[in-house]
Amino acid sequence: MKLIEIKTYLNRKVNQLYSLINNDLTKPNSIHLCVTHNCCLSCKHCDIWKIKDERKELTTEQLKDVILKLKKWLGPFNLNISGGEPFLRDDLVDVIKFSQKISVAITVTTNGVLINEELAEKIAKSGVKNLNISLDGFEEKHDHIRNRKGVYDKSVKAINYFKNYKIPVYLATVITKYNLEELSDMVRFAKNNNLDGINFQPLMQNFGAEYNASWHNKNEFWPEDKEKIENSINKIIELKKKGMPIINSTKQLELMKIYFLNPNEHASLRCLVGEKNFSINEYGEVMLCFFMKHIGNITKEDPKNIWDSEEAKIRKKQIDLCKRNCDLLNCNFTK
């Protein structure tokens, strides 16, 4: 057995024991709700906007019913809402208001493009807990990745609107070859603009794509300059140690560096999504992992029954044995 394989095995077992000791495995603690696959952008590193699905997405009342079901099962909890672009739904503010009234705290991830002052005010009054704004670089680089001119300016305007209304705002940044040398500046941007933090995500194979261990070899966004990778990530690790508002742990940042240098040999974590993750798509289908098939539909079944089902047990075993190199996704880490 190779040394890397022994290290991987031992680290997985340590993480497994830590998880068993520190988590209530009877319930998930990371709840996600995708409210639409529709998006107002066609980002080059994302395939969601390409989805052609004629099924009807959950209605306003169905969304509220889903959230109420979850509340009855979990008690007060934090719900992460995403898309597509969530604010394409004109009922989202109403859904957030409903959630706030029943003690469900809402975080929304948005590209910020649709946000004007009027909508920002409505969002502020809805009781939203915080917002994640997707920002992958400055000016031209962000616009290039998002595949449209002017997107950066709109996203920054959205940030300013939200800050004016005292809504906590975090940046969500995918690390690619295009922004590798701007990562430190993005941390400073978050600090200088009094944002609540920045959360980095390493570039991964797109959700829904058939798994290919060599996907990164021909990917336009994959950083290949090893010196730049080490220097750039080392710089943000130092900023983290100095107290800059980086949400990722130092451990995760160190692992990102290893991942980019050798993506197929970095895996030293045991994926925990099967023990803590409960994700619902825009049709009510429940998944433990975005890369795997659903285990039920929350509009037709009780969420606890889905979580405890035989299908869920099978999926959890599959996750435990999974060899994909996606264990650095933020869904596998806590703040």
Task: Describe the protein.
With 335 residues, this protein is of the alpha/beta class. It is 41% helix and 13% strand. The protein is built from 12 helices and 9 strands. Helix 3 packs parallel to helix 4 (117-126) and helix 8 (226-241) packs antiparallel against helix 9 (250-261). Mean pLDDT is 88; it is low at 1-23.
Explain briefly what this protein structure is.
By secondary structure, the chain is α/β, with parallel strands linked by helices. It has helices at 3-22, 60-74, 92-101, 117-126, 139-146, 151-164, 183-192, 226-241, 250-261, 273-276, 303-307, 310-321; strands at residues 30-34, 77-82, 104-110, 130-134, 169-175, 197-202, 277-280, 285-287, 296-297. Helix 2 runs parallel beside helix 3.
Major beta-sheet overview:
9 strands, mixed
**How many helical elements?**
12
Can you write the helix and strand succession as a string? HEHEHEHEHHEHEHHHEEEHH
Mean of pLDDT: 88
Shape: globular
Number of strands: 9
What are the low-pLDDT stretches, counting only 5+ consecutive residues below 50? 1-23
Q: Which oligomeric form is depicted? A: single chain
**What is Rg?**
20 Å
| Percent helix range | 40-55%
Q: State the end-to-end CA separation.
A: 34 Å
Q: How are the strands of the largest sheet arranged?
A: 6-5-4-3-2-1-7-8-9
Structural class: alpha/beta
% residues in beta strands: 5-15%
